[in-house]
Design brief:
single chain, 592 residues, mainly beta, Lipocalin, Immunoglobulin-like, 3 domains, 42 strands, 7% helix, globular
């Protein structure tokens, strides 16, 4: 037990296991996470099968968030749609109404009432969202009704944006009252800061807890909590006030802290100026507030998404969906796809990299990440400004101006092969137990079979099948196959293939992974020198092995040096053995 405890502490220290579990929801807030990457650990449907629709009383322009218990939450009304629905709806997973919570009427500026904001789900399940009645609401899901906990007035103008909640329990949100806010979980305003114009944008949070706001005064502003006024860490202007570089979309934050955001294609209106079309750009700003690059496009109200490979996706007023690659000093267009209408909806990326985005032409598109080609499309009855939410059961959800929320998918299971975990060279005549990593792309447990094949010159020299009766939901799993004896000849090239078998799995492209390696004569090594730096075993070897096993890091350069328990396989037992030796006085590595 002691060695396992030490191992868990090490994994927490290097960030491979979170010290505090996240909310048990596949989509607990606007744009999925605090950095607004809009990328999911789950895959969406392979075909556009309609599961159900729910009819609201006005356009559904916001986006679904999912509670801890699987309840779907969505607001209705917003912009100038005219229906007057000012409700937050709670829906059961089958699309039936659980309850409806009415906010107050809209402001006196001619806009209808409505909830355009997407709720953020707190750790205790409380829902926090804004309304066009100028309030931030906290509502408890009591099962049969939504119970108001509190509401806080944020000025005289509507709240369009969606809140984000920090680890410190502060709720960050902007309002059309020209202000950015930090509010505690009891609804008390901790701080506010006056900005130069309206805030339609929803703030994102950096890893260090700083809040990133965009506003129509053309500035990106990063705040630190400071009572009674927020403290500006830095502010970056994206243009001048009337030149069309106004910010309506929300920022997304990359793994290195880069802020990605686009600007609106129209100049200021209602401030002594008539709106005018303008050439606008998409921007990348460094974590310390310096401009990395800008990329021209026809106006961007679409909030960007960031793929697992770092590709940035966004829609534009020119009817196109763009895929950009951040090259550091400039952006390269990977592809763009032209729809039949303006794209002010925001993209969503699933675990396979598929991009889901709606258009004002009324269609929802699923685009392939490699070239932007259409995987499938689905027509709704109105334009789409809502962004897609991906559930943990294979369904996706999107709203439309026809007042409907659409659920697409068929709930089929999805197991995928992530990697063949081979090292570049294996010793001739040695015994090796191949390993591979698979992932369950659903929240529920699945049973499957995994098949591992090794080939020489196209002919199989090894095949093994392992049954996994209960692969946990939402996790990756390392599978060790039976031993194989490497051939006697040095320099032989081998290919390895692993694939998963699950009868109901319809997502076949992600079921297979490949690898390659070759045989070599015996190499000198130090037992336990996993990293190959000529020393060890030490902490660097432990980190190297953890990186390989849990984060997709490179395999150890010499198999036998890493197989410290001489089992013929690189698996968790080697990690436990090494921890036992280094920290609890266990036996030294043995290797072959």
């Amino acid at each position: 037990m002691q060695r396992i405890t030490v191992l868990l502490l090490i994994l927490i220290a290097v960030g491979l296991i979170p010290a505090q579990s996240p909310a048990e929801s596949p989509w607990p807030m606007f744009r999925h996470d605090r950095k607004h990457t809009a990328r999911s650990d789950y895959t969406g449907p392979t075909t556009a099968d309609l599961y159900w629709t729910f009819q609201a009383q006005d356009a559904v322009t916001g986006s679904v968030t999912i509670g801890h218990n699987g309840t779907l939450y969505i607001g209705a009304g917003g912009y100038y749609t005219g229906g007057g629905d000012s409700s937050l709806y709670a829906l059961n997973p089958d699309g039936s109404l659980k309850w409806q919570f009415k906010t107050d009427s809209g402001n006196t500026d001619g806009q209808t009432s409505g909830v355009h904001s997407s709720p953020a789900v707190g750790d205790d399940g409380t829902l926090y969202f804004g309304s066009l009645d100028a309030h931030l609401y906290a509502v408890e899901d009591s099962g049969t009704y939504g119970k108001l906990k509190w509401k806080t007035n944020l000025g005289d103008w509507p709240v369009y944006g969606s809140p984000v909640i920090g680890d410190n329990g502060v709720i960050y949100i902007g309002a059309l009252s020209f202000r950015a806010f930090g509010i505690d979980l009891d609804g008390n305003i901790l701080w506010w800061y006056p900005l130069g114009w309206c805030v339609f944008s929803s703030p994102a949070l950096r890893d260090d807890g700083l809040a990133v706001f965009g506003s129509k005064d053309h500035n990106i502003t990063v705040f630190r909590d400071s009572i009674p006024f927020g403290s500006i860490v830095w502010q970056h202007p994206l243009g001048t006030f009337y030149d069309g570089h106004l910010i309506d979309c929300s920022p997304a934050i990359g793994d290195d802290g880069t802020v990605y955001i686009g600007t609106d294609g129209y100049g200021a209106a209602g401030m002594g100026q008539e709106p005018f079309e303008a050439d606008t750009n998409f921007f990348a700003i460094t974590a310390d507030g310096n401009r990395k690059w800008s990329y021209p496009m026809g106006g961007c109200e679409s909030s960007p998404a960031i793929g697992f490979d770092g590709t940035i996706y966004m829609g534009s007023y020119d009817s196109c969906v763009y895929a950009l690659v951040d090259m550091g000093t400039h952006a390269v267009e990977k592809w763009k796809y032209k729809t039949g209408g303006k794209v002010d909806a925001s993209p969503t990326v699933d675990a396979d990299g598929t991009i889901y985005i709606g258009s004002r032409d009324g269609n929802l598109y699923a685009l392939r990440p490699e070239d932007g080609s259409v995987k499938w499309s689905y027509p709704t009855g109105g334009g789409i400004a809502s962004s897609v939410t991906i559930g943990g059961d294979g369904y996706i959800y999107v709203g439309s101006d026809d007042g409907k929320l659409y659920a697409l998918g068929n709930g089929s299971p999805d197991m995928g092969a992530i990697s063949v975990d081979v090292i570049p060279e294996v010793e001739v005549n040695s015994s090796v137990s191949p390993t591979a990593t698979v992932r369950n792309y659903r929240m529920t447990n699945q049973a499957l079979e995994a098949v591992f094949i090794i080939e020489e010159d196209g002919s199989p020299v090894y095949t093994d099948t392992v049954s996994v009766p209960n692969a946990p939901g939402s996790t990756t799993k390392s599978i060790t196959f039976g031993p194989w004896t490497v051939g006697p000849d040095s320099g032989t090239a081998y290919t390895a293939t692993v694939f998963t078998l699950l009868a109901a799995d319809e997502n076949l492209p992600n079921d297979t992974a490949f690898g390659a390696f070759e045989s070599t004569t015996a190499l000198p090594y130090i037992c336990g020198d996993i990293s190959g730096d000529g020393a060890g075993p030490d902490i660097s070897d432990l980190v190297y092995l953890v990186d390989f096993m849990f984060t997709g890091g490179p395999p150890p350069p010499i198999f036998n040096a890493a197989d410290i328990d001489a089992s013929g396989a690189l698996d968790i037992s080697d990690l436990v053995y090494l921890v036992d030796f280094m920290f609890t006085g266990g036996p030294p590595p043995v290797c072959n």
